Amino acid sequence: MTAPDWIIISGYGLIVLLLGILASRRAKGETEYFLASHSLGWLPVAGSTWATKLSALTFIGLPGAAIAQNFTFAQLWLGSFLAAYCVAAFLVPQFYRLQVPTIYTYLGRRIGPWTQSSAAAIFIASRCLASAVRVAGCAIAVSVFFGLPLLEAIVLIAGVAAIYVLTGGLRAVVWTDMLQLGLFLGGALAAIIFVALKLPGGVIEIVETGLAADKFRLFDLRLELSDPATFWTGNVFAFVLGLATGGADQDIAQRALACRSASQARTALISAGAADLLSTLLFLTAGASVFAYYQAFPDTAVSALASAGRHDYVFPHFIRHELPAGLRGVLVAALLAAAMSSLDSALSGLASSAYFDFRSMERPRNSLDPTWSRVLVVMFAIVLALIAIGFGSQPSILWFGLQIMGYTYGGLLGLFLLALFAPKFTNDRASAIAAFASIAIVLWLTQWGFGFGGPPVPWPWAVVIGAASTFGIAMIVTVFRDRRHGP
Protein backbone atom coordinates (compact mmCIF):
# COMPACT_ATOMS: atom_id res chain seq x y z
CA MET A 1 0.00 0.00 0.00
CA THR A 2 1.38 3.38 -1.04
CA ALA A 3 0.60 7.00 -0.14
CA PRO A 4 -2.02 7.47 -2.92
CA ASP A 5 -3.80 4.31 -1.73
CA TRP A 6 -3.93 5.55 1.84
CA ILE A 7 -5.17 8.98 0.75
CA ILE A 8 -8.08 7.42 -1.16
CA ILE A 9 -8.98 5.03 1.64
CA SER A 10 -8.76 7.79 4.26
CA GLY A 11 -10.89 10.09 2.10
CA TYR A 12 -13.54 7.41 1.81
CA GLY A 13 -13.57 6.86 5.56
CA LEU A 14 -13.79 10.59 6.26
CA ILE A 15 -16.76 11.07 3.91
CA VAL A 16 -18.63 8.16 5.49
CA LEU A 17 -18.13 9.55 8.99
CA LEU A 18 -19.17 13.05 7.88
CA LEU A 19 -22.38 11.66 6.44
CA GLY A 20 -23.07 9.98 9.75
CA ILE A 21 -22.46 13.21 11.66
CA LEU A 22 -24.73 15.20 9.34
CA ALA A 23 -27.50 12.64 9.74
CA SER A 24 -27.09 12.70 13.52
CA ARG A 25 -28.50 16.23 13.66
CA ARG A 26 -31.92 14.80 12.86
CA ALA A 27 -31.72 11.56 14.84
CA LYS A 28 -33.67 12.75 17.88
CA GLY A 29 -36.72 10.49 18.08
CA GLU A 30 -36.95 6.74 17.68
CA THR A 31 -38.94 7.07 14.43
CA GLU A 32 -36.16 9.22 12.95
CA TYR A 33 -33.28 7.13 14.32
CA PHE A 34 -34.65 3.76 13.24
CA LEU A 35 -37.01 4.65 10.34
CA ALA A 36 -35.78 8.06 9.06
CA SER A 37 -39.22 9.51 9.92
CA HIS A 38 -40.77 7.62 6.98
CA SER A 39 -39.41 10.37 4.72
CA LEU A 40 -37.16 8.57 2.22
CA GLY A 41 -37.91 8.28 -1.49
CA TRP A 42 -37.79 5.04 -3.44
CA LEU A 43 -34.44 5.74 -5.13
CA PRO A 44 -32.18 5.99 -2.04
CA VAL A 45 -34.03 3.07 -0.44
CA ALA A 46 -33.56 0.98 -3.59
CA GLY A 47 -29.86 1.89 -3.71
CA SER A 48 -29.38 1.11 -0.02
CA THR A 49 -31.25 -2.20 -0.34
CA TRP A 50 -29.17 -3.14 -3.38
CA ALA A 51 -25.95 -2.23 -1.57
CA THR A 52 -26.96 -4.25 1.48
CA LYS A 53 -27.62 -7.36 -0.59
CA LEU A 54 -24.21 -7.10 -2.26
CA SER A 55 -21.88 -7.25 0.77
CA ALA A 56 -18.30 -8.44 0.94
CA LEU A 57 -19.52 -11.91 0.00
CA THR A 58 -20.30 -10.52 -3.44
CA PHE A 59 -17.00 -8.70 -3.67
CA ILE A 60 -14.80 -11.72 -3.03
CA GLY A 61 -17.24 -14.64 -3.31
CA LEU A 62 -18.56 -14.02 -6.84
CA PRO A 63 -15.12 -13.52 -8.41
CA GLY A 64 -14.03 -16.60 -6.50
CA ALA A 65 -16.98 -18.57 -7.89
CA ALA A 66 -16.14 -17.51 -11.46
CA ILE A 67 -12.47 -18.37 -10.99
CA ALA A 68 -13.31 -21.79 -9.56
CA GLN A 69 -16.27 -22.63 -11.82
CA ASN A 70 -18.40 -20.44 -14.12
CA PHE A 71 -21.31 -17.96 -14.27
CA THR A 72 -24.07 -20.36 -13.16
CA PHE A 73 -24.56 -18.47 -9.88
CA ALA A 74 -26.30 -15.77 -11.96
CA GLN A 75 -29.19 -18.10 -12.80
CA LEU A 76 -30.36 -17.84 -9.19
CA TRP A 77 -31.36 -14.23 -9.89
CA LEU A 78 -34.69 -15.34 -11.36
CA GLY A 79 -35.91 -16.87 -8.10
CA SER A 80 -34.53 -13.96 -6.11
CA PHE A 81 -36.30 -11.37 -8.28
CA LEU A 82 -39.63 -13.21 -8.14
CA ALA A 83 -39.31 -13.23 -4.35
CA ALA A 84 -38.67 -9.47 -4.26
CA TYR A 85 -41.76 -8.91 -6.41
CA CYS A 86 -43.95 -11.07 -4.14
CA VAL A 87 -42.72 -9.32 -0.99
CA ALA A 88 -43.42 -5.93 -2.58
CA ALA A 89 -46.86 -6.98 -3.79
CA PHE A 90 -48.20 -8.84 -0.74
CA LEU A 91 -46.29 -8.04 2.46
CA VAL A 92 -45.29 -4.38 2.08
CA PRO A 93 -48.91 -3.12 1.78
CA GLN A 94 -49.74 -5.03 4.99
CA PHE A 95 -46.85 -3.42 6.86
CA TYR A 96 -47.97 0.06 5.82
CA ARG A 97 -51.64 -0.61 6.52
CA LEU A 98 -50.82 -1.41 10.15
CA GLN A 99 -48.08 1.27 10.46
CA VAL A 100 -45.65 -1.08 12.23
CA PRO A 101 -42.23 0.05 13.55
CA THR A 102 -40.76 -3.40 12.83
CA ILE A 103 -42.05 -6.22 10.68
CA TYR A 104 -42.31 -8.45 13.77
CA THR A 105 -44.83 -6.02 15.23
CA TYR A 106 -46.97 -7.07 12.27
CA LEU A 107 -46.84 -10.65 13.55
CA GLY A 108 -47.79 -9.47 17.02
CA ARG A 109 -50.86 -7.68 15.75
CA ARG A 110 -51.95 -10.45 13.39
CA ILE A 111 -51.25 -13.45 15.66
CA GLY A 112 -49.97 -12.41 19.08
CA PRO A 113 -47.05 -11.33 21.30
CA TRP A 114 -45.50 -14.80 21.61
CA THR A 115 -45.17 -14.99 17.84
CA GLN A 116 -43.70 -11.49 17.68
CA SER A 117 -41.06 -12.18 20.33
CA SER A 118 -40.20 -15.58 18.87
CA ALA A 119 -39.76 -14.16 15.36
CA ALA A 120 -37.58 -11.35 16.66
CA ALA A 121 -35.42 -13.84 18.57
CA ILE A 122 -35.01 -16.05 15.51
CA PHE A 123 -34.18 -13.01 13.37
CA ILE A 124 -31.55 -11.78 15.81
CA ALA A 125 -29.87 -15.18 16.01
CA SER A 126 -30.06 -15.69 12.23
CA ARG A 127 -28.87 -12.22 11.30
CA CYS A 128 -25.96 -12.44 13.74
CA LEU A 129 -24.82 -15.67 12.09
CA ALA A 130 -25.37 -14.48 8.51
CA SER A 131 -23.80 -11.06 9.02
CA ALA A 132 -20.86 -12.60 10.83
CA VAL A 133 -20.15 -14.56 7.64
CA ARG A 134 -20.12 -11.25 5.75
CA VAL A 135 -17.72 -9.75 8.27
CA ALA A 136 -15.47 -12.78 7.90
CA GLY A 137 -15.58 -12.43 4.11
CA CYS A 138 -14.44 -8.83 4.24
CA ALA A 139 -11.85 -9.59 6.89
CA ILE A 140 -10.28 -12.20 4.61
CA ALA A 141 -9.64 -9.53 1.99
CA VAL A 142 -8.55 -6.88 4.49
CA SER A 143 -6.08 -9.31 6.02
CA VAL A 144 -4.64 -9.94 2.55
CA PHE A 145 -4.42 -6.22 1.69
CA PHE A 146 -2.85 -4.98 4.91
CA GLY A 147 -1.09 -8.10 6.13
CA LEU A 148 -3.18 -8.09 9.30
CA PRO A 149 -4.16 -11.17 11.30
CA LEU A 150 -7.76 -12.12 10.64
CA LEU A 151 -8.76 -11.28 14.22
CA GLU A 152 -7.52 -7.69 13.96
CA ALA A 153 -9.22 -7.23 10.59
CA ILE A 154 -12.56 -8.39 12.02
CA VAL A 155 -12.35 -6.02 14.99
CA LEU A 156 -11.43 -3.10 12.71
CA ILE A 157 -14.37 -3.67 10.34
CA ALA A 158 -16.98 -4.10 13.08
CA GLY A 159 -15.70 -1.03 14.93
CA VAL A 160 -15.83 1.31 11.92
CA ALA A 161 -19.37 0.25 10.99
CA ALA A 162 -20.58 0.74 14.54
CA ILE A 163 -19.21 4.29 14.70
CA TYR A 164 -21.35 5.82 11.98
CA VAL A 165 -24.47 3.79 12.81
CA LEU A 166 -24.12 5.18 16.34
CA THR A 167 -24.08 8.74 15.03
CA GLY A 168 -26.90 8.98 12.51
CA GLY A 169 -29.16 5.92 12.61
CA LEU A 170 -30.94 4.61 9.51
CA ARG A 171 -30.69 7.87 7.58
CA ALA A 172 -26.90 7.73 7.86
CA VAL A 173 -26.97 4.09 6.79
CA VAL A 174 -29.05 4.78 3.67
CA TRP A 175 -27.02 7.73 2.40
CA THR A 176 -23.65 6.13 3.11
CA ASP A 177 -24.93 3.04 1.30
CA MET A 178 -25.60 5.18 -1.79
CA LEU A 179 -22.00 6.40 -1.75
CA GLN A 180 -20.70 2.91 -1.14
CA LEU A 181 -22.79 1.41 -3.93
CA GLY A 182 -21.14 3.67 -6.51
CA LEU A 183 -17.68 2.88 -5.17
CA PHE A 184 -18.46 -0.84 -5.00
CA LEU A 185 -19.66 -1.13 -8.62
CA GLY A 186 -16.98 1.24 -9.89
CA GLY A 187 -14.26 -0.84 -8.25
CA ALA A 188 -15.33 -4.01 -10.04
CA LEU A 189 -15.56 -2.18 -13.36
CA ALA A 190 -12.11 -0.67 -12.84
CA ALA A 191 -10.61 -4.14 -12.25
CA ILE A 192 -12.13 -5.42 -15.50
CA ILE A 193 -10.85 -2.44 -17.48
CA PHE A 194 -7.36 -2.82 -15.98
CA VAL A 195 -7.16 -6.47 -17.04
CA ALA A 196 -8.46 -5.64 -20.52
CA LEU A 197 -5.76 -2.99 -20.95
CA LYS A 198 -3.04 -5.20 -19.51
CA LEU A 199 -3.66 -8.32 -21.61
CA PRO A 200 -2.15 -8.31 -25.11
CA GLY A 201 -5.48 -9.32 -26.64
CA GLY A 202 -7.60 -7.01 -24.45
CA VAL A 203 -11.28 -7.83 -24.05
CA ILE A 204 -11.09 -10.44 -26.80
CA GLU A 205 -8.47 -12.37 -24.84
CA ILE A 206 -10.67 -12.31 -21.72
CA VAL A 207 -13.57 -13.69 -23.75
CA GLU A 208 -11.50 -16.33 -25.55
CA THR A 209 -9.84 -17.53 -22.33
CA GLY A 210 -13.19 -17.64 -20.56
CA LEU A 211 -14.86 -19.55 -23.37
CA ALA A 212 -12.05 -22.07 -23.52
CA ALA A 213 -12.45 -22.73 -19.78
CA ASP A 214 -16.29 -22.72 -19.93
CA LYS A 215 -16.42 -19.70 -17.62
CA PHE A 216 -19.40 -18.01 -19.27
CA ARG A 217 -21.87 -20.86 -18.88
CA LEU A 218 -25.01 -19.33 -17.34
CA PHE A 219 -27.37 -22.28 -17.00
CA ASP A 220 -27.04 -25.70 -15.45
CA LEU A 221 -30.29 -27.53 -16.21
CA ARG A 222 -29.38 -30.80 -14.53
CA LEU A 223 -32.12 -32.13 -12.24
CA GLU A 224 -29.84 -32.47 -9.23
CA LEU A 225 -31.74 -31.85 -6.00
CA SER A 226 -28.65 -31.55 -3.84
CA ASP A 227 -26.81 -28.94 -5.92
CA PRO A 228 -27.82 -25.27 -5.40
CA ALA A 229 -25.78 -24.29 -8.45
CA THR A 230 -28.32 -25.98 -10.77
CA PHE A 231 -31.20 -24.00 -12.27
CA TRP A 232 -34.13 -25.85 -10.68
CA THR A 233 -32.83 -26.41 -7.16
CA GLY A 234 -31.04 -23.08 -7.09
CA ASN A 235 -34.08 -21.04 -8.05
CA VAL A 236 -36.42 -22.80 -5.63
CA PHE A 237 -33.86 -22.09 -2.91
CA ALA A 238 -33.36 -18.48 -4.10
CA PHE A 239 -37.12 -17.83 -4.25
CA VAL A 240 -37.94 -19.14 -0.78
CA LEU A 241 -34.84 -17.60 0.80
CA GLY A 242 -35.60 -14.34 -1.03
CA LEU A 243 -39.09 -14.29 0.50
CA ALA A 244 -37.52 -14.79 3.92
CA THR A 245 -34.74 -12.21 3.61
CA GLY A 246 -36.93 -9.65 1.83
CA GLY A 247 -40.13 -9.94 3.83
CA ALA A 248 -39.20 -11.62 7.12
CA ASP A 249 -35.81 -10.00 7.83
CA GLN A 250 -35.80 -6.63 9.58
CA ASP A 251 -32.38 -5.91 8.08
CA ILE A 252 -33.83 -5.47 4.57
CA ALA A 253 -37.44 -4.61 5.45
CA GLN A 254 -36.39 -1.72 7.69
CA ARG A 255 -35.59 0.32 4.60
CA ALA A 256 -38.98 -0.38 3.04
CA LEU A 257 -40.62 0.86 6.24
CA ALA A 258 -38.69 4.14 5.93
CA CYS A 259 -40.31 5.12 2.61
CA ARG A 260 -42.96 7.83 2.32
CA SER A 261 -45.61 5.37 1.14
CA ALA A 262 -46.27 1.72 0.38
CA SER A 263 -46.10 2.39 -3.37
CA GLN A 264 -42.62 3.89 -3.07
CA ALA A 265 -41.51 0.97 -0.90
CA ARG A 266 -42.79 -1.50 -3.53
CA THR A 267 -40.92 0.36 -6.28
CA ALA A 268 -37.73 0.35 -4.20
CA LEU A 269 -37.79 -3.39 -3.50
CA ILE A 270 -38.60 -4.38 -7.08
CA SER A 271 -35.91 -2.05 -8.45
CA ALA A 272 -33.29 -3.42 -6.06
CA GLY A 273 -34.28 -6.96 -6.98
CA ALA A 274 -33.91 -6.25 -10.70
CA ALA A 275 -30.55 -4.54 -10.17
CA ASP A 276 -29.11 -7.65 -8.50
CA LEU A 277 -28.59 -9.22 -11.93
CA LEU A 278 -26.33 -6.37 -13.02
CA SER A 279 -24.06 -6.58 -9.99
CA THR A 280 -23.92 -10.37 -10.13
CA LEU A 281 -22.82 -10.38 -13.77
CA LEU A 282 -20.37 -7.55 -13.12
CA PHE A 283 -18.53 -9.38 -10.35
CA LEU A 284 -18.59 -12.70 -12.14
CA THR A 285 -17.02 -10.90 -15.09
CA ALA A 286 -14.38 -9.47 -12.76
CA GLY A 287 -13.59 -13.03 -11.66
CA ALA A 288 -13.37 -14.27 -15.26
CA SER A 289 -11.09 -11.34 -16.09
CA VAL A 290 -8.75 -12.15 -13.20
CA PHE A 291 -8.76 -15.79 -14.29
CA ALA A 292 -7.69 -14.72 -17.80
CA TYR A 293 -5.02 -12.45 -16.34
CA TYR A 294 -3.38 -15.25 -14.39
CA GLN A 295 -3.59 -17.55 -17.40
CA ALA A 296 -1.52 -14.98 -19.28
CA PHE A 297 0.73 -14.09 -16.33
CA PRO A 298 1.00 -17.16 -14.07
CA ASP A 299 1.61 -16.60 -10.37
CA THR A 300 2.80 -19.38 -8.06
CA ALA A 301 0.94 -17.87 -5.09
CA VAL A 302 -2.33 -17.90 -7.03
CA SER A 303 -1.72 -21.48 -8.13
CA ALA A 304 -1.19 -22.46 -4.51
CA LEU A 305 -4.43 -20.75 -3.47
CA ALA A 306 -6.35 -22.52 -6.25
CA SER A 307 -4.83 -25.88 -5.35
CA ALA A 308 -5.92 -25.39 -1.74
CA GLY A 309 -9.46 -24.49 -2.86
CA ARG A 310 -9.11 -20.94 -1.54
CA HIS A 311 -10.48 -19.18 -4.58
CA ASP A 312 -11.97 -16.40 -2.43
CA TYR A 313 -8.44 -15.17 -1.78
CA VAL A 314 -7.50 -14.77 -5.45
CA PHE A 315 -9.29 -11.47 -6.18
CA PRO A 316 -7.89 -9.77 -3.03
CA HIS A 317 -4.42 -11.09 -4.00
CA PHE A 318 -4.86 -9.62 -7.47
CA ILE A 319 -5.85 -6.23 -6.05
CA ARG A 320 -2.89 -6.09 -3.71
CA HIS A 321 -0.16 -7.36 -6.00
CA GLU A 322 -1.20 -6.43 -9.54
CA LEU A 323 -3.03 -3.11 -9.45
CA PRO A 324 -1.07 0.15 -9.59
CA ALA A 325 -1.00 2.70 -6.77
CA GLY A 326 -4.19 4.72 -6.57
CA LEU A 327 -6.32 2.16 -8.37
CA ARG A 328 -5.41 -0.31 -5.65
CA GLY A 329 -6.69 2.19 -3.09
CA VAL A 330 -9.97 2.54 -5.00
CA LEU A 331 -10.50 -1.24 -4.97
CA VAL A 332 -9.63 -1.52 -1.28
CA ALA A 333 -12.07 1.29 -0.52
CA ALA A 334 -14.66 -0.51 -2.67
CA LEU A 335 -14.21 -3.66 -0.62
CA LEU A 336 -14.60 -1.71 2.60
CA ALA A 337 -17.72 -0.13 1.11
CA ALA A 338 -19.09 -3.59 0.38
CA ALA A 339 -18.51 -4.65 3.96
CA MET A 340 -19.89 -1.48 5.50
CA SER A 341 -23.04 -1.44 3.34
CA SER A 342 -24.13 -4.81 4.69
CA LEU A 343 -22.75 -4.54 8.20
CA ASP A 344 -24.21 -1.12 8.99
CA SER A 345 -27.68 -2.25 7.94
CA ALA A 346 -27.35 -5.41 10.02
CA LEU A 347 -26.44 -3.39 13.11
CA SER A 348 -29.34 -1.01 12.52
CA GLY A 349 -31.82 -3.85 11.88
CA LEU A 350 -30.69 -5.85 14.90
CA ALA A 351 -30.80 -2.83 17.18
CA SER A 352 -34.24 -1.73 15.96
CA SER A 353 -35.73 -5.20 16.46
CA ALA A 354 -34.28 -5.53 19.96
CA TYR A 355 -35.39 -1.98 20.80
CA PHE A 356 -39.01 -2.30 19.64
CA ASP A 357 -39.80 -6.02 19.92
CA PHE A 358 -38.51 -6.76 23.43
CA ARG A 359 -38.90 -3.51 25.32
CA SER A 360 -41.99 -2.41 27.16
CA MET A 361 -44.14 -0.08 25.10
CA GLU A 362 -44.95 1.96 28.23
CA ARG A 363 -42.75 4.88 27.25
CA PRO A 364 -43.57 8.27 25.71
CA ARG A 365 -44.50 8.01 22.04
CA ASN A 366 -41.54 8.55 19.70
CA SER A 367 -39.10 9.16 22.56
CA LEU A 368 -35.62 7.76 21.96
CA ASP A 369 -33.61 6.24 24.76
CA PRO A 370 -30.19 7.34 23.44
CA THR A 371 -28.18 5.21 25.84
CA TRP A 372 -30.08 1.96 25.26
CA SER A 373 -30.34 2.34 21.49
CA ARG A 374 -26.60 2.92 21.13
CA VAL A 375 -25.67 0.23 23.62
CA LEU A 376 -27.56 -2.21 21.39
CA VAL A 377 -25.52 -1.15 18.34
CA VAL A 378 -22.22 -1.65 20.19
CA MET A 379 -23.37 -4.94 21.69
CA PHE A 380 -24.32 -6.41 18.31
CA ALA A 381 -21.05 -5.18 16.76
CA ILE A 382 -19.17 -7.15 19.41
CA VAL A 383 -21.35 -10.25 18.89
CA LEU A 384 -20.84 -10.17 15.11
CA ALA A 385 -17.08 -9.84 15.53
CA LEU A 386 -16.90 -12.78 17.95
CA ILE A 387 -18.93 -15.07 15.66
CA ALA A 388 -16.96 -13.96 12.57
CA ILE A 389 -13.73 -15.15 14.17
CA GLY A 390 -15.01 -18.71 13.95
CA PHE A 391 -16.17 -18.36 10.33
CA GLY A 392 -12.97 -17.07 8.74
CA SER A 393 -11.62 -20.51 7.80
CA GLN A 394 -14.47 -21.54 5.47
CA PRO A 395 -13.29 -22.58 1.97
CA SER A 396 -16.16 -20.82 0.11
CA ILE A 397 -17.57 -17.90 2.05
CA LEU A 398 -20.32 -17.26 -0.54
CA TRP A 399 -22.07 -20.64 -0.32
CA PHE A 400 -21.43 -20.89 3.42
CA GLY A 401 -23.30 -17.62 3.98
CA LEU A 402 -26.32 -18.90 2.04
CA GLN A 403 -26.23 -22.21 3.89
CA ILE A 404 -26.29 -20.50 7.28
CA MET A 405 -29.42 -18.51 6.37
CA GLY A 406 -31.18 -21.58 5.00
CA TYR A 407 -31.24 -23.31 8.38
CA THR A 408 -33.26 -20.70 10.29
CA TYR A 409 -34.98 -18.40 7.81
CA GLY A 410 -37.55 -21.02 6.83
CA GLY A 411 -39.05 -20.93 10.32
CA LEU A 412 -39.14 -17.15 10.19
CA LEU A 413 -40.85 -17.14 6.80
CA GLY A 414 -43.41 -19.68 7.99
CA LEU A 415 -44.62 -17.24 10.66
CA PHE A 416 -45.23 -14.53 8.07
CA LEU A 417 -47.13 -16.97 5.86
CA LEU A 418 -49.35 -17.79 8.83
CA ALA A 419 -49.92 -14.09 9.56
CA LEU A 420 -50.71 -13.36 5.93
CA PHE A 421 -52.94 -16.31 5.06
CA ALA A 422 -54.24 -17.91 8.27
CA PRO A 423 -54.13 -15.52 11.26
CA LYS A 424 -57.63 -16.54 12.42
CA PHE A 425 -56.87 -20.25 12.29
CA THR A 426 -53.69 -20.40 14.33
CA ASN A 427 -52.88 -19.93 17.99
CA ASP A 428 -50.22 -17.49 19.19
CA ARG A 429 -48.22 -19.93 21.30
CA ALA A 430 -48.68 -22.70 18.76
CA SER A 431 -47.05 -20.50 16.12
CA ALA A 432 -44.09 -19.74 18.36
CA ILE A 433 -43.62 -23.44 19.16
CA ALA A 434 -43.88 -24.33 15.47
CA ALA A 435 -41.13 -21.88 14.46
CA PHE A 436 -38.60 -23.29 16.90
CA ALA A 437 -39.65 -26.86 16.18
CA SER A 438 -39.11 -26.32 12.46
CA ILE A 439 -35.51 -25.23 13.06
CA ALA A 440 -34.89 -28.41 15.05
CA ILE A 441 -36.48 -30.48 12.26
CA VAL A 442 -34.33 -28.79 9.62
CA LEU A 443 -31.11 -29.32 11.56
CA TRP A 444 -31.98 -32.98 12.13
CA LEU A 445 -32.91 -33.69 8.50
CA THR A 446 -29.87 -31.94 7.03
CA GLN A 447 -27.54 -33.79 9.39
CA TRP A 448 -29.08 -37.24 9.72
CA GLY A 449 -31.90 -37.42 7.16
CA PHE A 450 -35.10 -39.36 7.79
CA GLY A 451 -33.31 -42.20 9.51
CA PHE A 452 -33.19 -45.87 8.46
CA GLY A 453 -29.73 -45.34 6.98
CA GLY A 454 -30.92 -42.80 4.40
CA PRO A 455 -28.83 -39.80 3.33
CA PRO A 456 -29.22 -36.32 4.87
CA VAL A 457 -31.56 -33.88 3.15
CA PRO A 458 -29.52 -31.49 0.93
CA TRP A 459 -29.11 -28.11 2.65
CA PRO A 460 -30.67 -26.03 -0.19
CA TRP A 461 -34.04 -27.51 0.79
CA ALA A 462 -33.68 -26.51 4.44
CA VAL A 463 -35.42 -23.16 4.03
CA VAL A 464 -38.31 -24.79 2.12
CA ILE A 465 -38.77 -27.49 4.77
CA GLY A 466 -38.53 -24.89 7.54
CA ALA A 467 -41.28 -22.71 6.10
CA ALA A 468 -43.61 -25.63 5.35
CA SER A 469 -43.12 -27.31 8.73
CA THR A 470 -43.72 -24.07 10.64
CA PHE A 471 -47.01 -23.54 8.81
CA GLY A 472 -48.08 -27.15 9.19
CA ILE A 473 -47.09 -27.62 12.84
CA ALA A 474 -48.80 -24.37 13.88
CA MET A 475 -52.05 -25.46 12.25
CA ILE A 476 -51.90 -28.97 13.75
CA VAL A 477 -51.08 -27.74 17.27
CA THR A 478 -53.91 -25.21 17.06
CA VAL A 479 -56.42 -27.88 16.02
CA PHE A 480 -55.44 -30.22 18.89
CA ARG A 481 -55.49 -27.33 21.35
CA ASP A 482 -58.95 -26.26 20.25
CA ARG A 483 -60.28 -29.82 20.53
CA ARG A 484 -58.81 -30.17 23.99
CA HIS A 485 -60.11 -26.89 25.35
CA GLY A 486 -63.34 -26.86 23.40
CA PRO A 487 -64.92 -23.97 21.50
Topology (elements, then pairings):
Blueprint (H helix, E strand, L loop, with lengths): L2 H22 L5 H6 L6 H27 L8 H22 L4 H8 L2 H34 L3 H49 L3 H11 L18 H17 L2 H8 L4 H35 L3 H8 L6 H9 L4 H31 L12 H22 L5 H25 L6 H21 L13 H24 L2
Helix pairs in contact: 1-7, 1-14, 3-6, 3-7, 3-11, 3-14, 3-16, 4-9, 4-11, 5-6, 6-7, 6-13, 6-14, 6-15, 6-16, 6-17, 7-8, 7-11, 7-14, 7-15, 8-11, 9-16, 10-14, 14-15, 16-17, 16-18, 17-18
Account of the protein in words:
- This protein has 487 residues and is mainly α.
- It has one domain (3-361, 391-485): Sodium/glucose cotransporter (Up-down Bundle).
- Helix content is 78%, strand content 0%.
- The chain is built from 18 helices and no strands.
- The chain has helices at 3-24, 30-35, 42-68, 77-98, 103-110, 113-146, 150-198, 202-212, 231-247, 250-257, 262-296, 300-307, 314-322, 327-357, 370-391, 397-421, 428-448, 462-485.
- Helix 6 packs across helix 7, helix 6 (113-146) runs parallel beside helix 13 (314-322) and helix 6 packs antiparallel against helix 16.
- It starts with a helix and ends with a helix.
What is the CATH C-level name? Answer: Mainly Alpha
Shape: globular
Helix tally equals 18
CATH homology superfamily: Sodium/glucose cotransporter
> Structural class of the helices, strands and pairings?
mainly alpha
Per DSSP, what share of the residues sits in E-state strands of 2 or more residues?
under 5%
CATH architecture: Up-down Bundle
Regions with little confidence, pLDDT below 50 for 5+ residues: 360-368
* Largest β sheet strand count, sense and barrel closure: none
Can you give the mean pLDDT?
A: 84
Measured between the Cα atoms of the first and last residue, the distance is: 72 Å
The sequence of SSEs as H and E is: HHHHHHHHHHHHHHHHHH
Give the helix proportion (percent range). Answer: over 70%
